[in-house]
Design a protein that fits this description.
The protein has about 325 residues and is of the alpha/beta class. The chain has helices at about 20-30, 45-50, 65-75, 90-95, 95-115, 155-170, 195-205, 225-235, 260-270, 295-300, 310-325, and strands at about 10-15, 35-40, 55-60, 80-85, 125-130, 175-180, 185, 210, 220, 220-225, 245-250, 255, 275-280. The protein has a domain at about 10-185 and about 220-255 and about 290-305: NAD(P)-binding Rossmann-like Domain (Rossmann fold, 3-Layer(aba) Sandwich). About 40% of the residues lie in helices and about 15% in strands.
Length: about 325
């Protein structure tokens, strides 16, 4: 008997983000009916720029508004939810913790509560957590059984997202699975403060790349297309007892220092004469963060298909087209 969950009517929160745009594309390719919850129209985002938005049902509103979330699920008779919507920039979270807690924490319980009320309809919910949910740990890489102990505002918001999701599973058996990824990169990320798009843009504009930290922070980087596959796998496998209610790390298992990442991008550009500008201004950031994805490999059969170089090459091509105006 096929125990796979089949997606037909899918809600994606955070569809204007990096992962959201590519996930919506993959769902439409599978001929799913896609509903997107959009707070602000983002004409530059992959979702809008590509025209994908015109093939979706649009609900306008915020995750913080319970009635909006409940309406999106109920009116469109959603069977699958990908909850990616969140305030994702660490610096914004530090400057405005309230806004981050509202969207990331209240937004999560609003979404899960709306799903809880329709158990016959909503059969799979995949929630985006993050490696940041683990906080500072004495040993690395992070494994799924480690406690969630974020301390800084963004990290705490992801620890809470994760714990609330686990609570809804333990208490109400909500069909959830949690994805914890490192730094997701790929074409379509317009948050220029992030190291990959920021570095590529600088090099395309013949400027020195800027490193906010001292360059020595070690991070996990995973290509957006590999993450899309991870999310689809999680949703499909939700009926499996080894998946439902569980959290999974997704990682290339090739952590790099920020300065090493910048040098790698420069190498792919064939540029060695530029010296990165190291600002050393990062505050409230954990020094090293990287993940062990053994569980995802063994239980889901997930494997990243892109090497770091291959993913970066595709990413560089996207930005070359986008910034030259050819992508417009």
């Amino acid at each position: 008997m096929d125990n796979k969950h089949h997606m037909e009517r899918v809600l994606v929160t955070g569809a204007t983000g990096l992962l959201g745009g590519w996930l919506v594309r993959a769902l439409l390719e599978r001929e799913c009916s896609v509903v997107v919850l959009v707070r602000d129209p983002e004409p530059q985002s992959e979702l809008y720029r590509s025209g994908l938005i015109q093939r979706t049902h649009i609900v306008v509103g915020q995750l913080e508004e319970y009635a909006v979330v409940a309406r999106a699920i109920n009116e469109y008779e959603v069977d699958t939810v990908f909850h990616l919507g969140a305030q994702t920039i660490v610096g914004h979270a530090r400057r405005s913790p309230l806004q981050t807690f509202e969207s990331n924490i209240r937004g999560t319980w609003n979404l899960l509560e709306a799903c809880r009320l329709h158990p016959a309809m909503v059969r799979a919910i995949v929630v985006a957590s993050s490696d940041k949910a683990y906080g500072d740990q004495a040993t690395l890489p992070y494994t799924e059984q480690m406690p969630l102990q974020g301390r800084y505002p963004y990290d705490v918001s992801k620890s809470c997202t994760d714990l609330i999701t686990q609570s809804y599973y333990a208490t109400y058996q909500l069909p959830v699975a949690i994805a914890r990824c490192g730094n997701i990169y790929g074409g379509g990320d317009l948050n220029w403060s992030r190291i990959v798009p920021g570095t590529i843009r600088s090099l395309l504009q013949h400027q020195a790349p800027v490193i906010r930290s001292n360059g020595r922070l070690k991070r996990d980087y995973v290509y957006v297309q590999d993450v899309v596959q991870a999310y689809l796998l999680l949703a499909e496998a939700i009926n499996d007892d080894q998946v439902r209610g569980e959290a999974f790390n997704f990682s290339l298992q090739q952590p790099l220092r920020v300065d090493e990442m910048v040098w790698l991008i420069m190498k792919l550009f064939g540029t060695t004469e530029v010296e990165p500008m190291i600002l050393n201004q990062a505050v409230a950031e954990i020094v090293d963060q990287y993940l062990d994805s053994t569980k995802a490999r063994s239980r889901l059969g997930w494997r990243p298909t892109y090497s770091l170089e291959a993913g970066l090459r595709e990413t560089i091509s996207w930005y070359q087209a986008f910034l030259s105006g050819a992508a417009a």
